[in-house]
Specification:
alpha+beta; two-stranded antiparallel ribbon; flat
């Protein structure tokens, strides 16, 4: 495996961890402090309905949704900054 592909996969992993941490902290801060309630407001990006295919023997369901809020974006940016400093 090339060095560059490992580096990109690690960056993707760090970004996912940052998104998860940002979302979690936004939910916690938004529920504890009423003035920070806007941090819990999320926007959905993805398919409105899942694609459902039935072949009578096997069923397939396809769909993907991303729930993004302000703290998710901040978490991703902070994770990338910390990753780049290493």
């Amino acid at each position: 495996m090339k060095y560059g592909s490992t580096n990109k996969s690690m960056l993707f992993f760090v970004s996912c961890v940052g998104a998860l941490g940002g979302t979690l902290s936004g939910e916690i801060l938004g529920s504890k402090f009423k003035s920070l309630d806007f941090l819990k407001q999320s926007y959905t990006i993805g398919t409105p309905k899942n694609l459902y295919i039935d072949f009578k023997i096997v069923n397939f369901t396809f769909g993907i949704n991303f729930y993004i809020n302000l703290m998710t974006i901040i978490g991703i940016v902070l994770a990338i900054i910390i990753y780049k400093r290493k």
